[in-house]
Amino acid sequence: GIQVEQSPPDLILQEGANSTLRCNFSDSVNNLQWFHQNPWGQLINLFYIPSGTKQNGRLSATTVATERYSLLYISSSQTTDSGVYFCAVNRDDKIIFGKGTRLHILP
Amino acid sequence: EAGVTQSPTHLIKTRGQQVTLRCSPISGHTSVYWYQQALGLGLQFLLWYDEGEERNRGNFPPRFSGRQFPNYSSELNVNALELEDSALYLCASSTKSGQGTYEQYFGPGTRLTVT
Fold first, then answer.
1. Would you say B32 and B72 are in contact if contact means Cβ atoms under 8 Å apart?
2. Distance of CA A55 to the CA centre of its chain
3. Most B CBs within 10 Å, among A43, A84, A91, A94, to test the B interface
4. Are B85 and B77 in contact (CB under 8 A)?
């Protein structure tokens, strides 16, 4: 089955820094989503991005489907950006989440 | 527009008991997905219902089961609870699955503790 790998597993940054999170997948997929899980466990949709580039405020994402990876960019980090970021892919009725990147933004 | 809702929020059960978790999807969504997230771990796919039918299930034993009702709400049932079933159970919904081009929206989860 499809393997989804996220890197780095952990990231500690000062407030105001920029970061890039990566999601690699081992085969072609029908879609890809990025989520942010807050400290209370709620998963927040960030991007639905099977291909191309999207931006939403300080966050943007790029998926290069032909090369089987997606990147999530966070600019001017804030403490509220802390949490775990997951990417999830779907193919052939199978949904696979990566193990996540745990982001700590220090004040 | 109301989001995905789940009940109860928290639940404490004893090993060997049975539990039922409930999920109401976003209005207009016909697919419901269930995931298990053990403490500090990633999300493991449990079940996927689409218009009342089970579309796929993850690698979980048969004591994990569920169903989807005509109004597209869903229940997850876990029988013969084990300590390792303690986890956050997340439900998500999406519009009708077609060519895998859906977008999932998650509920707040039910935190189950088995003692």
1. yes
2. 13
3. A43
4. no
Tell if the CB–CB gap between B104 and A42 is shorter than 8 Å. Answer: no
Judged by a CB distance cut-off of 8 A, whether residue A33 touches chain B is: yes
Instruction: Show the tokens assigned to B15.
Output: 């090993």
pLDDT at site B49: 93
User: Looking at residues B93-109, what average pLDDT do you find?
Assistant: 80
Identity of the amino acid at B23 = C
Flag whether pLDDT at A97 surpasses 90.
yes
The C-alpha atoms of residue A74 and residue A89 are separated, in whole angstroms, by 20
Is the separation of the CB atoms in A81 and B23 below 8 Å?
A: no
Tokens at residue A38, please? 């807050």
Confidence bin at A95 (pLDDT 50/70/90) = confident
Contact between residue A86 and residue A96 where contact means Cβ atoms under 8 Å apart: no
Residue in this structure with the two tokens 């084990």, named with its chain if needed: B82
Answer whether residue B64 shows pLDDT above 90: yes
